[in-house]
Sequence to fold (620 residues):
Amino acid sequence: MKKSTKKHIVTTLIPLALGFTLLDHQVSADELNGVEVENILSHLNNDELISEESLELDAEIIDLTEVRTSSVNRTHKNGIYTVVKGDTFYSISQSFGLTQTQLRVWNNLSSIPSHLDIGTKLAVTKQGVEANLPSSQKAKLIEYGKPLTYNSAEEMIQSLAPVAVKIANQSGEEKLWPSLMLAQAIHETGVERSAGMSDKSRAPYHVLMGLKARGSVTSILDWTWEEVKVGDKTEKIQVLAEFQSFSSYPAAVQGYADRLRYGPGWDSNFYSGTWVSNSKSVWDVLDNGGLKGYATDGVYVSKIKDKINQYNLTQYDRKVSRISGETRFDTAVNISKQGWDKSSTIVLANSHNFADALAGVPLAGAMNAPILLTRTGELESATLNELNRLGAQNVVILGGEQAISANVEKTLAQKGISVNRLAGETRYQTAGLIAKELNRQSPGVKEAVIVSGDNFVDAMSVASFAAQNNRPIYLTRQDRLTDDIKEATKTIKNWQIIGGSSVVQASTEAELQKLGASATRISGSDRYETNQNVIKHYGTSNSQVYVSTGRDYIDALTGAVLAAQKNTGIMLTENRQDILNRNIQFVSRQNINQFNFLGGEKVLPNKIADSLKNYSTKGQ
Fold:
């Protein structure tokens, strides 16, 4: 009979180890007959992971069993059709509502056959495919209709978020992004569907992430959808795929994490793009191919992003910790314990004198020494105990006897600890002496920082970065350079001024230029913007910051050396909503997701921690 050139709506079905919506496109009978189809069998064998989502047929789509190229009525027995004279592969596929690709894959054919022997048996339904399985594989077919485990995505998140966070941050393992785990669990299980979770994702199978079975693992067989290339087009076909099953959902999350950390078998670094060490955020993973090979769905990444945004899953990527104590002395000790097991040298500063202390941060960094605090007249017992724990043999005292008395020095000497005091007649001179000692400890200083000697906040912002870059901090008066700075310009030609012209006037820059030095300035409209601009200028290498109140210097002082040790800086904040909003905007743009609070709840209320951890963001 004459072939029809009438266009029909064809729903291309695909057996995939992942799930996607049906792809509908217009084709003619001529286009269908003899179409060249690439060999996808090897592709199906190598797909790394499998997903599933709900599939709904449009009411207007024509039932393919009604599309005919002949008047032959074909029937099957238990899903198996026996070829008779006059049959072609194409005519058989059309009689049973299949594409040639679907029929080929269901019968494990490497290509579309041009000839069929009479009597050849072909599986033309899912029942037929299952009937052709060996008994060992039939035993793996899942049972449908098991009870739902989770009734909503929210319920799933509430249950699995703590598990994902714990497994993503396992000690000694590559860190992962919990938001990615949760988004994929939501997507792969189809928990949002009106019909509920997919059957294979329910107990007792716990196929949470759609992992294909590899090696000697417990597995099940289930039908799913896969997207394949057919010429220059894409088809979706149904396949019977083997999934790795688990004893529980936590075990499934662990199995997924292991797959990302150790690869699918042939390449241990296959998913290294998903590691926290190789990405700044979960958006970085998704935008730069970290999930390569996970799905054949061309819009899979967009679907995962949608889930992350819809349920604010990035909140689980953020970590908040706090270092504090009952007093500022205790906080300093606890900061020391975080960064140092032993230290032969420590730096000792007055607990109420910011000028000497902040200038000492780069020196402490050069000596890899913590900064501890003391009162003027006597050594705190907590500080002395920490000296003993560290095994300290040397103490560098910052400031004169008005800051730390001779009695403290005597106490140290009685403990067999040698003391080196750096003290000038003024805070400016003390900063100059500290700078010289830094150059002695770490010769070759070529750059330095200038901050106001009357305002601690700008020194707080830059101290940890100055320590990382071996830059001394000099204190200056508002309208003129000190003699120590003028002397230092003979060897140091590059200077960085922190703070606006209201705290360090422009005349100081001109004065530096007259002395043959150059100067750059980092500033902002207020202390918080200056702080953020300093962090942006220097950058953080590990997506974390230390957080300190912008209204008191002391915790930032002792924490700055620890921040330098961790190659990051200190972000200033306070319990004001406008400041919190600016903090959130800043850390979101900078992909900062780990916050280490310096100080107790009195100076940094939990509201601040909650705001930084739980804010909602949109992906790129």
